[in-house]
From TrEMBL:
KW Cell wall biogenesis/degradation (keyword) present: no
GO MF annotations, alphabetized: zinc ion binding
Region (Disordered): 1-21
Occurrences of domain MYND-type (ranges): 31-67
Transmembrane regions listed in the UniProt entry: none
Organism: Hebeloma cylindrosporum
Positions with biased composition (Polar residues): 1-11
Pfam family, one: zf-MYND
Name assigned to this protein: MYND-type domain-containing protein
InterPro entries (alphabetical): DUF8205, Znf_MYND
Amino acid sequence: MSSASSNSYGLSPSRKEVNRGRHKAYKGSLCKNCQTNEGSKKCPKCKTVYCSKKCQKEDWPQHKVLCALHSEGEPDINKLTQILISNRLLRRYIAVLIILKLKLLQKPDTARSFHAQIIIGFEPSSIFDFFDLFKRSAVIDASPLQGMLQIHKILPEHVDLGDISKRVPFPESELEKRRTDLSQSGLATLPFGVIQFIYGAESMVVVSAVDIVIHTESMELARNANDLEIPNPFQPGTTIKKPLSPYSCMELVNMLIRQDTKNKWLLRMNMGVNHKKMIKDAWVAFPDYVKQLKAFNAKVALGSIYTAYMEVILQDRGLM
Ligand SMILES: [Zn+2]
Ligand SMILES: [Zn+2]
């Protein structure tokens, strides 16, 4: 039996490959707070490094959000993003997403690393469970509920996320090291950069930073494809044609994850209480009927309510 199956989107990785090929997220060895000293102390819960007690204390107001997501029973979102980017099929369309959003086709200069910021969500894999949680009166308990990773937004490179990106700057020195390794393996001409995965509700945090090489096949796909065929959420086994755009790339990635009901790709995990609460709290961003309707439409159309949610949050912060 072949270890990978092919469909119209490309080669889908096998379970074995998904298990084996976990991409390593950039962890960094510098203190997360001051970014100057070598980190020698670790947060006992999430292993974030600090140079001193003082720095750890200073960072705590922001850090507690990220750290709470590492509580017992919560899925490891950092790990999920590594699994996501290790999946060659999903990585291919995330690469196209980056090419389109950061206009890499128009920027042949590969000497500079690109920086992409992708906002992700972790939400119930069943739309019915989603709407049970996504309301003011939702009851949050520890009962098992399956969640899955989804991608919600890619920010253009010039967006300054203010306190979010300040907390975890792009790891320039580490990037340079990886670039050198790349040139040695003859890949220096390909676009190379980092994706920061950002997650959260009211406070958003960078959960991981991973480097990615944009391979020629993704560049070709971005250059030549006119339409993307997205799995039809309403009629399994059929597809809908969408013009190739950052939006349709995200839609495709989300739909492919949604289709993986057997969790062959390991992007589904049990939702902890904190993650459930984040879905419930997201309700607050839709105070009136029109916004609610917009959110519901987005959920049904895209399989993701966070896209509408993020628009609201980012607009409120003047980031869009
Ligand atoms: Zn420090
Ligand atoms: Zn921590």
